[in-house]
Amino acid sequence: MASAGLQFFAFMLALFGAFGDIAATLLPNWKVNADVGSNIITAITQMQGLWMDCTWYSTGMFSCTLKYSVLSLPVYIQAARTTMVLSCILSAFGICITTVGMKCTKLGGDTDSKSHTCFAGGVCFILAGIFGLVPTSWYTREIISNFLDQTIPESSKHEPGGAVYIGFISAGFLLVAGVIFCTSCFKKQQGAWIYPPKQQHFPSTQQENNAGYNLKDYV
């Protein structure tokens, strides 16, 4: 029962991680630049994401521009697009697979089949966490390096936005969920290997004695 509860906890972590992964992929605030003019009315906030760039004004109006050209984007943005999409796909596959393999569900067949299915779902979550952690780390490194570069003007420097932090947290959730699913199945199989079922063996001498007694009864 404790193992089933632990798997359910890992499934909830993976669910939050998958939703956060999708949100981080679509949000436009991967990096933020606040440009405050001489008047509070002219204050704007520029945000750049993987798919669009948005500008928010202090008056409440905003405008967004989609990034249609892929080849004109920097390499780290192209890599972030690909890896984040792969992370979302793998996390979705992991949710579908672990739903079948968890102990609290009545799907997936016998215990061994559910254990193998659950292990496969855990591997999907681990890969999804890695694919989500790599672009966020690379993107953050580019933002920090540009911010510390003295040759770049202050108006062109940015800070990490909320989407980056959501990506980090979601990747952590997916990694933890994948490790829990894999270790729970591995411990069960390892216990079966270390403690095999005991088989009762009757000594041959005892069987011969019993046969002797039976012959004496007929004499």
Automatic annotation (TrEMBL):
Pfam families to which the protein is assigned, alphabetical: PMP22_Claudin
Recorded topology in the membrane: Multi-pass membrane protein
Membrane-crossing segments per the record: 75-97, 118-139, 163-186
Alphabetized InterPro entries for the sequence: Claudin, Claudin_CS, PMP22/EMP/MP20/Claudin
Signal peptide: 1-24
Subcellular location, principal: other
Keyword set, alphabetical order: Cell junction, Cell membrane, Membrane, Signal, Tight junction, Transmembrane, Transmembrane helix
MF terms (GO), sorted A to Z: structural molecule activity
Alphabetized PROSITE patterns for the sequence: CLAUDIN
Subcellular location per the Swiss-Prot or TrEMBL entry: Cell junction, Tight junction; Cell membrane
Cellular component, GO annotation: bicellular tight junction; plasma membrane
Keyword Metal-binding recorded: no
Biological function: Claudins function as major constituents of the tight junction complexes that regulate the permeability of epithelia.
Similarity-based family: Belongs to the claudin family.
Designated name of the protein: Claudin
Organism: Asarcornis scutulata
